[in-house]
Amino acid sequence: MGQPAIEPTHAFTITGQVEQEITCKMTDFDQFETRNIKDVVITNHNGEKKGTSEGLKGILMKDLLDKVQFKVESPKQLSEFFLTFEDSDGYKVVFSWNEIFNTATGDNLYLITEKEGKKITAMDERILIISTTDYKTGRRNVKGLQRVIVGRAP
After folding, report:
1. Is 6 inside any structural domain?
2. Domain annotation covers residue 3
3. How many helices (H) and strands (E) does the chain have?
4. Whole-angstrom Cα distance, residue 47 to residue 61?
5. What is the pLDDT of residues 19-55, one digit of tens each?
6. At residue 1, does pLDDT exceed 50?
7. Cα–Cα distances in Å, from 116 out to 6, 36, 123?
8. Is the pLDDT of residue 5 over 70?
9. At 72, which CATH number?
10. Residue ranges making up the domain that contains 24
């Protein structure tokens, strides 16, 4: 028996330690540069192959998140922030601000706009986030993105 199907989403909200909550709709994605992405082998927590995501196009999450105003008094404080990506069934993954904006991970964290010839509006797992350079890619593969919660370490 496999995992239940994830409910597709049409928008997600960026909330938490931000100056203003933002709702990102699929129509908003058109304003960002779309990139071709190499095929991604999806592996589980043991590194076992579970499938391959092919024909991918997407936008960098850091480009989209660059519009967010974090609640900080100085840029030094940005190192205290983390972002929790939550899907429609409650699954959550975490990235630090530094991972996204200060390492190669941020250059490989995509919101997928096309998969296997299907545009985002026709994808079953919309809104899909993939970190293409993770060693165990399935761990931070978020299907049905519903919310990005910006937190701050105490």
Report:
1. no
2. no
3. 2, 12
4. 24
5. 999 999 999 999 999 999 999 999 999 999 999 999 9
6. no
7. 18, 12, 9
8. yes
9. 3.90.420.10
10. 11-152
